[in-house]
Amino acid sequence: MSDNQIENNIISELNRQVNYFIKSNKYQDDIKNTKFSSIRTINKTEIWSEWSHNILQDMNNNIDVLKSFRKNNYFITDVPGDMRGLKKIFYNFFSIMPSKLKKYHPKICMLEDFFDFLKSKNLLSLLARNPSSKIGNPELYIKENMIFTHRWIRHIWLLNLYNKFLNNKNVQVIMDIGSNFGALAYLLKKNNPKLKFILVDFPEALSTAHYFIKKEFSKANIASFDDLKDLEKIDESIIKKNDFILLPCFWIEKLEKNTVDLTINIASFNEMNRFWFSKYTNSEVYQSSKFIFLMNRFSRPAIEENEKPIDILDLKLNNFKKIHFDISELYKWDYTHRSYLLGLPVFFKKNVHPPVYEFIGERKYD
User: Do 219 and 313 fall into the same domain?
Assistant: First the structure.
């Protein structure tokens, strides 16, 4: 199947998927309770149907939106990210400077610091064996003949934690809530081919996961919207038939209990509103997951006005026997405090990053 066929098929399925959920009365409450930040509206928010309409319009008009989804930071932000004109010249100039001087550029400083973190943990060999994929046409950083992005370093660290604490726990099925394009699942599958995955996210993010995984694992069995729409429940037999199940978040309740060994959530539980947090954490599949693997802030401001922030206490981690718990050393600095001139970062200050925790636990049973 040619590249364009793969992309066109995925975009066509995404159109069918979005129309299905928007037109179905069953999902209207979910849609109304799903808001995204937006620069297109006066109140700076859009509900999912509005947000999705704009994305679909762009993808239908330009297939490269999907093909270069990591380059243009369309669905998820990463560093270095797409830069053009003066920004690219400015970045390239600093990238060839000596080590101390290049760190005056905030993006390069972030990438160098993350690389140094892996080096301090003796994990450069893990990065060398698992260089950043080039699918999605990302802007890549090169150091010591290794290629990576800011987020890719995080995935390497998470892979290391999995290897250290979960590799011997007989995990067979992993559910990743807020999986985006599936980078962590890709790394885990590459290093553990027998693992099965259920990636849960909004349809647009899953379209990038479909493209990414199809390109990386051409022979993998992938179940997506068209394969799942007529199923009342997704049980063990369906999961066993597939390497990856791409599950729209609206269908979290289709998953039967006791079908998932490990649930992963990385940096999204306290970036969602309480409606979705409750929908996920109260689901049968989450409640019956044997293990949990989290990396989130201890607390952050609520997404919705008049809502209480979602913090670590909401996760009820006392229901799990601790395997690993720590304040993440990866997120030490915040690089976002910058001053600009003509769109160029002429000054920035490293501030202490709000604390992020890592938790891996095994569910307690009465």
Answer: yes
Cα(364)–Cα(126) distance, integer angstroms: 32
Tens of pLDDT along 251-271? 999 999 999 999 999 999 988
- Name the residue type at position 295: M
Helix, strand, coil shares of the chain, percent, nearest 5, are: 45, 20, 35
Check whether residue 255 and residue 140 sit in a common domain: no
pTM above 0.85, yes or no: yes
Read out DSSP for 13-29?
HHHHHHHHHHH-GGGHH
Peptide bond into 80 cis (omega under 30): yes
Q: Tens of pLDDT along 134-176?
A: 999 999 999 999 999 999 999 999 999 999 999 999 999 999 9
Per the structure, the count of domains in the chain is 2
Q: What pairs with residue 36 in β-bridges?
A: 46
Q: Which residue range is the domain that position 96 belongs to? A: 85-152
